[in-house]
Structure prediction request, 374 residues.
Amino acid sequence: MVTLMDGAVEPDSLAAFLRRRARHADLPALPLRPLIAEYTATFGSTWRPVTRRKHRDDFARLIAWLEANGQPVTTASLDFPVLVDYVGYLRVRPKVSGVWRGTPDALGRSLRHAPVQTLSANSVNAYVRPVRSLAIWLVDEGLLALNPFRRSRRRAALNPLLSSEETPTKSATLDDIRALEAGCAGERPLDLRDRAITSILKTTAARNSSVRLLRLDDLDFERALIRFRRAKGGKTLDVALQPETRAALSAYLECGRPVLLDPSPAETGSTDDPGWVFLSAGAGEARPLTMNALSLMLTRRYHAGGGSLRTFGSHRIRHATATLLVNNGMPLEEVSRYLGHSSTDVTRRYARQTPDALGRRAAEALARAGLVAS
Prediction:
């Protein structure tokens, strides 16, 4: 077997790897902290705030581990054996579960309230991916001899640095959706707001940020469209506005939003409406819901309607809608476009055909084939 690396064909062996490293042995070891700062300054302007926080935490975690284990906090530690040890440490690291990660002593509180759980392979993968991006940038800049992740990339199924595992998606059933809707019953402004949010989520399978950051000019009642301008990957998606959702939105915009906007621009003499569709209550100013506020609202409403799952967020609704669409005859390719996926491979993981649906289709096919009585 041969593998193309560093512009040449080399035998896929440890000896070849050592020869390539020897060719770059004259590169000095450089401090990591200023390089991480430069990398962040170079690319950070394109990251969302949550991505910046995550990368900051991921790099801080690596540096803390290097210092605790007597490893140099330099590019010399971006080496395959060192990173294998770091990944091994992450795989046995206790998982924070049942409490908000930003809470003081989150890990201690988690361990007191639940059995010890370790990080999943997918969580470890997410912690290590920024380190891989940093290594690629350092190699491109000529500051690192070799990308340590490149050697391990050849056997993806047994990748010691970026392992992953198939895990069941956090979906929901139709009964769960009904419980959420029941929890939104009422005619108060917040009831109208939350009912409209729930209707959009279940009929469009949109993400948290796409819904909470909707603006008034994103709603096209004349053409029955919702425009999601902040979809994942910077995409803009036009999705059909279903009649039920249209009615829920109209009721909220007419009777709910003006109250949440209080004092209204007309009363204050201002001509400026912030333009957000879904406003936060009690914020002191007209502003959109935060990501956590929307997630907590959905969980609270779900429990009020009799739901039994511990948490219930927008992604459960997204998975449930995709699954229900596929199992009720909508082709996978169309569901993929509806969800804004770039490939049906992602949709296939989201929208799993249930045994009942497969059984019904198998029974129909068996009858058509004459294998069973129709």
Q: What stands out?
A: The first helix runs from residue 14 to 23.
